[in-house]
Design brief:
Elements: H1 14-31, E1 33-37, H2 38-57, H3 60-69, H4 73-86, E2 95-102, E3 109-115, H5 122-188
Antiparallel strand pairs: 1-3, 2-3
Helix pairs in contact: 1-2, 1-4, 2-3, 2-4
Length: 189
């Protein structure tokens, strides 16, 4: 069982807090970044990252669990298709909080919380892309190799006989060429 949060709740009651976090998460997934107070951003971060983890899992039960929390089907679809694909190689840390100063009206500390959609590192992204391309090429080549394997064996059997004949016919010509070059080499000495 998760430990309850210390201090007063964000909105007054537990039901209001759950709805507020769900709406903040829906706005975050829809717009990719939102501006809110630092307290709300800190409370939203684990909530949103847990939903992204469900989206990365991608099965029907995960989708239903997320739909139980976020009622907007369009946002859930975007979470499961776009966002989950963008953070597939990331092992956590799907959100970033940046403090931006205080709000003008009530001097509340404000922050921007945004989804981290860029690759973990550029080098890892290139390596992952190269391995995926090599895997695709290997899968394409495997069926072609299986179909060509019986034909290749027949060609090898047929190719062996002419090669031995060709070697036998080339041997006297090569010996004749060597004998012609040998006297020329002796004359230069």
């Amino acid at each position: 069982m998760p430990t309850p949060t210390k201090g007063p709740r964000l909105g007054g009651g537990p039901a209001h807090e759950r709805l507020m976090l769900a709406n903040l998460a829906a706005a975050l997934f829809e717009h990719k970044r939102i501006t809110t107070t630092v307290t709300k951003a800190k409370r939203l971060k684990p909530y949103a990252e847990r939903l992204v983890t469900f989206a990365k899992r991608g099965d029907l039960s995960s989708r239903r669990r997320v739909l139980g929390l976020i009622s907007n089907k369009g946002v859930v679809h975007e979470l499961f298709t776009d966002i989950a694909g963008a953070v597939a190689n990331r092992d956590g840390g799907y959100t970033r909080i940046t403090k931006i100063g205080n709000r003008k009206g009530d001097n509340a500390p404000m922050a921007v919380i945004e989804l981290v959609l860029e690759p973990v590192s550029p080098k890892q992204a290139v390596v992952a892309e190269a391995t995926a391309a090599a895997k695709r090429d290997a899968e394409k080549a495997a069926p072609a190799a299986e179909e060509a394997a019986p034909v290749a064996e027949e060609e090898v059997v047929e190719a062996e006989a002419p090669e031995t004949e060709a070697v036998e016919t080339e041997a006297p010509e090569a010996e004749a060429a060597e004998t012609e070059e040998a006297p020329a080499a002796e004359e230069t000495k």
